[in-house]
Amino acid sequence: MRIGFGYDVHKLVENRKLILGGVDVTFEKGLLGHSDADVLVHAVMDSILGALALGDIGKHFPDTDNKYKDISSIYLLSQVYELMEEAGYTIGNIDVTVAAQRPKLAPYIEEMRKNIANTLHTSIDNINVKATTTEWLGFEGREEGISSYSVCMLKKENN
Ligand SMILES: Nc1ccn([C@@H]2O[C@H](COP(=O)(O)O)[C@@H](O)[C@H]2O)c(=O)n1
Ligand SMILES: C[C@@]1(CO)OP(=O)(O)OP(=O)(O)OC[C@H]1O
Questions:
Q1: What is the structure's pLDDT at 88?
Q2: Is the distance from the beta carbon of residue 42 to the nearest atom of ligand 2 less than 6 Å?
Q3: What residues contact residue 77 under an 8 Å CB cut-off, 6+ apart?
């Protein structure tokens, strides 16, 4: 078994879609990034890469490479799944927290869990997604950005 942790932040700006957990969330602002800036999925990917001791997403999908411009982070997660499978691991469980003052994410959580579970070829019961405000404190509270934290446990087949 291996444990991993991931953390990411993206800035909220106008005229961008808000994609979180592969879901198009209705909001007046979206996250800025080279990819679709899905900060939740980025934290999940970094936790898996961390558990595998394979570095981070910037190493595998550099933001200097035009092929990743506006790319779906769920697609990048499928690439991380391939690396995990090659290393002989499967998902034990993943627990993610998104810190966002707004919008209310509760209505989207089940779809996010489904997207992540399907992409990682695991049961939805192994994927937990939580949202918290920061009580109007800090950059998330001022709605300048959204952050995400993820921990994961990976299991080796037959172990
Ligand atoms: N963007 C968010 C933030 C929170 N929630 C849900 O509301 C609950 C209360 O949030 P607190 O920050 O006051 O603890 C939280 O447990 C989430 O269920 C949300 O849906 N979207
Ligand atoms: C996801 C990548 C893809 O180029 O771009 P960004 O959307 O800028 O996201 P970041 O969290 O800065 O991680 C770097 C990149 O891997």
A1: 97
A2: yes
A3: 41, 44, 45, 116, 119, 120
